[in-house]
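Model it.
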Amino acid sequence: MCFVWGIWPRSSQSRDGAMGIVHSSRYLGVRWIRQRRRWSADLYFGGRELHIASFDDEQAAAEAHDRLALHYLGSAAKLNFPRRHLVAASLTELRHEARQWKSSRFRGVFFNHRRGRWDMQFRIPGGGSATITGYETEEAAARAHDRAALHYLGPKAQLNFPSSARFIRAADVPTLAAEKRRAFKANTTSRFRGVSWDRQVRRWRSCIKVGGQPLLLGYYDHEEAAAFAYDAKALDAFGRDARPNFHPETGEELCGERTVASIASVAQRARKRFV
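Modeled.
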């Protein structure tokens, strides 16, 4: 079996299955370690496997793979996120960064050092993992995890707060993400993602974060114009992972609550119904 640049077999459980390792990630160089309940980031380079670190977040592991691939292979690297402007990093640098991520005492919760907030991650049965970022408290992220667990797994779900199970309102991941987004925007000056009112300039500011670095897109007289500027850059930088403010085809107002990939999936299912 041949491995190239951190590409691992994904179709079924590998020969490492007895050790609790399942190659279940959709990303290159990322594996789910069942016994440790973490994502392992690795790169196969120069005839040997380079283990980077283990992460609570699947996408963080995928980004670590890409940054090490860029360090060794440059523009020839095969990346998980070719549209993201990731900064190449050595193995030592990546391991140091990974140590800054702090785990939680709750299931499915981890502290995101870069954002300074708590994130919730849930593995959807048969559908990979989903992460919702930016919870103010560890408990809030844990309760969001419990709501997702009850929705997808029902009474058999393992909860962070089992004594409160009968009071928990089950919700799927898109609903939780939309609620989180609305709560965040309730405390900001604009309902659109990446848009805020600059009191000093007295214009709408459009910003986006790419590769962990904030990027100012410009100032606009109209709130919608700033939102469109954000969408254009987001689609260019993140592709199907972008969360636009407006539907790319219909112009429907979305305010960043859905990814381009989820929009396309809904449209495809709708077309099949009428075929």
